Amino acid sequence: MEKLIKPKIAIYDFTDCEGCEVAIISLREKLLELENRLNIVDWRLAQEKKEQGPFLVSIIEGTPITPDEIETLKWLRENSTYIFALGACASLAGIPGIVAKEEREKFYKQIYGENYKPVGIDAVPLSAYVKVDFSIHGCPVNPDEVVRIIEELLAGKKPAYRGCSVCFECKLAGNPCRLVFGKPCLGPIGQGGCNAICVSGGSPCYACFGQREDANIPALIKILQNLTSREEIERYFTMFYKHMPEWQEKAKELLK
Ligand code: SF4
Ligand code: SF4
Ligand code: SF4
Prior knowledge:
Strand content: 5-15%
CATH superfamily of the largest domain: NADH:ubiquinone oxidoreductase-like, 20kDa subunit
Largest sheet: 5 strands, parallel
Shape: globular
Helix content: 25-40%
Strand order of the largest sheet: 2-1-3-4-5
CATH class of the largest domain: Alpha Beta
Number of domains: 2
CATH topology of the largest domain: Rossmann fold
Structural class: alpha/beta
Oligomer: single chain
Number of strands: 5
Order of helices and strands: EHHEEHEHHEHHHHHH
Number of helices: 11
CATH architecture of the largest domain: 3-Layer(aba) Sandwich
Bound molecules: iron/sulfur cluster
């Protein structure tokens, strides 16, 4: 019988907490089922096997902050048909991107001592260095979404985002709306995919699953301005969007 040639996949990570890869590992049997149809040939965190590309897709978590990481990212781009950003660090610069440039020196000294010479640069999304074909958003990603997106790719389809906002999923979960009770939330502009997990747990949504293409940022800012201060609104939008041009151009102008 002819041996099935399975597409080669690589999973890489740069600077981050590795929580999104742990989310993939948490798939357990579902991951093994997926491996019947693909061949993960390079995944430092989860396996010893390491084979050369080229890869159908490189799924990359984290953000590159050293020259070596940037070179590896460029090499992966050259050797992969598709690059998927895995998680908010890779797609939006995420948590590593929050740090204020002017504070970095101070934090380095506090943590590593006076003599430490940092080699790291600012955390920015992968798309600042290479073309990214699709972002599997989230902090962390929803493992079931990872399966759905990879299955769409294996079926020859262009992966798509869920066709709803976080608010839609929040309503399905039966949560009372925070905005009605005077509490900020970015759910209306946030791409669905997490089943509104934070709001269900009592926290606001910071839209870590990315902004919807049709996001009406001016309308949401108007609502938030009636609820809270400019500083607080900025804090919400810069949690995951500090490095995104959409935020820089639109939202900051609106808050002037
Ligand atoms: S997106 Fe969040 S969970 Fe994923 S690696 Fe970054 S910080 Fe960790
Ligand atoms: S609490 Fe947030 S996510 Fe839920 S419906 Fe209200 S604005 Fe939308
Ligand atoms: S509720 Fe918002 S912040 Fe929380 S996981 Fe979903 S998109 Fe991210």
